[in-house]
Amino acid sequence: MKLPTWFHKLASPPHFYRLAGAMAPWFLWSSVLLIAVGAYGGLVLAPPDYQQGDGFRIIYVHVPSAYLSTLVYAIMATAAGIGLIWRMKLAHAVAAAAAPVGAWFTFLALVTGAIWGKPMWGTYWEWDPRLTSELILLFLYLGYISLRQAYDDPGKADRASAVLALVGVVNLPIIHYSVIWWSSIHQGPTIKKLDAPSITMEMAWPLFTMIIAYTLFFAAMLLQRVRAEVLDRERNARWVAEVVQLPAEGR
Amino acid sequence: MNLGRAMLAVLRRDLQLAYRRWGDVASPLMFFAIVTALFPLALSPRAEDLQAIGPGVLWIGALLAMLLSLNALFRQDLEDGSMELLVIGPQPLPLIMLCKSVGHWLVAGLPLIALAPVLAVTYHLPVDAVLALCATLLLGTPTLSLLGSVGAALTAGVRQSGGLLALLVLPLCLPVLMFGARATALAGDGEDITGPLFLLAAFLVLAVSLVPVTAAAAIRVSLD
């Protein structure tokens, strides 16, 4: 398969390093701005829920985190697959950089879910399909990170963890459809039904804003982490020495 | 050498190795028996309690016993170089990996299924549940062998791989454990369990068709 030229150019570490460095602040500041807007809309402007009162407002952290926990895994697995098939080292760097961020989003989704669950369901934790599959997602992330660390050779670590990331993809549809396939204590999707969303617009727009803001935040984090990863991997290259301006004998 | 004979040769070699070293076959069995003996002592020896926890405990015991033997699945082959010969040989590697899994199941899985009814009786499980336990184990443990082969292939070249192997393999085994144990419990209550049995069979078909390819990719990583 023939890939376009810009795609090949992306794989060049110095080129990517500069491009990512230029893009990361834009993503970061737009996400900070949108988080501020979304937080104001969600915490102040949106009306209290008729059943849950003000307690529902944790949705503005919970849903974006849960959404990103699966999105990041999909991105990580895609990057790992690209790295495995086209032997592109930068793709492996992207997958490696995405994993810890994804693990934290999963952790955040589980913790905010537990905090939300206590007053609403009367329990912090329930062995329910969606909660369990989200917990498995956390274990997949941890397994991926541990497998990377177990290998001394970075090339082997890349390829072994890429295989694992691709195997773990089977969990994604299970998480997504768990509330539909099994009767579950977790509520069904509220915002996926675009024709007739089961949430009022006043509550929905801050949620969409937060989802976009979190995604932009993830993009900023990913770019910065990939930059660090690239520097680490290419530490013996001449361009790295020029970028970090170490004296020649210091490295 | 044609493909069928090569596959049989791989399988026979694994069985012969197991036959000559009885300890490797016996240790998962003893582990299974001891783990299941812990629960009545730690929780409660009352028949009702044992009947309630029995299906889950027996299934978890079988799962952990299989995990125990996974660690050595490829290690020796990698160390003595025979894995390299299998990889560079003309036979398709996925089919060789399938043979390795079948061998693992015959050595580590099948004896567990033979021991399970005996242990189930000590948990006072009704006859229906014992039969369901054997049926679900028969359909489920091959899937566990296959899934485990991916984890074993990924961690074959790694030091201290025991805990890592568990972290990689156990999350993937959960659906099998869930349906196996729940179906056994349902059968004990006199319910129909054809649904879970079909699901377990579907998992097995999926695993047979997808896992050997993945395991082959994983063992290639461990080799070079």
Query: What multimeric state do the chains show?
Result: heterodimer
Low-confidence stretches of chain B: none
Structural class of chain B: mainly alpha
Order of helices and strands of chain A: HHHHHHHHH
Q: Please tally the β strands of chain B and state the result.
A: 0
Average of per-residue pLDDT values of chain A: 85
Helix content of chain B: over 70%
Secondary structure elements and their pairing?
The complex is a heterodimer of chains A (251) and B (224).
Chain A lengths: L4 H6 L2 H33 L13 H28 L2 H33 L7 H22 L3 H15 L2 H11 L19 H33 L4 H7 L7
Chain B lengths: L2 H18 L1 H21 L4 H24 L4 H5 L2 H7 L4 H30 L4 H29 L5 H28 L5 H30 L1
Helix pairs in contact in B: 1-6, 2-3, 2-6, 3-6, 3-7, 3-8, 6-7, 6-9, 7-8, 7-9, 8-9
Short note summarizing the structure:
The complex is a heterodimer of chains A (251) and B (224). Chain A has 251 residues and is mostly helical. Chain A has helices at residues 5-10, 13-45, 59-86, 89-121, 129-150, 154-168, 171-181, 201-233, 238-244.
